[in-house]
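Kindly inspect what follows.
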Amino acid sequence: QVQLVESGGGSVQARGSLRLSCAASGYTVSTSSMAWFRQAPGKEREGVAAITTGIGSTYYADSVKGRFTISRDNAKNTLYLQMDSLKPEDTAMYYCAAASRWVAFPLLRSEYNYWGRGTQVTVSS
């Protein structure tokens, strides 16, 4: 049974930083694509960052490029999202996602079939 458990969310002021973690069990983070999504109240869930299997190519939404970094620690079987220079518009519930097959569009929600329960990130101005 695959479980993804996010942690690291919280409240921070604008221009601050947070690091989100996603601990996986029943799933090996190095063997397929994983991603971070976020959903703000009243908005669609959107892909923020993704990392693919193998060499670990990374993909980012335009809104977070240069500020967020996705990475994984294969030994700890954990996915991370380092978020710097946070803005109030980054406020959302952040979800970890994992795919069970090859992913063609890494930031597309429908590519992923395993999801965590989310961790809240709130950025104040």
User: Anything to note?
Assistant: The chain has a mean pLDDT of 96. Residues 2 and 26 are 4 Å apart (CA to CA). The radius of gyration is 13 Å. The longest strand covers residues 18-25.
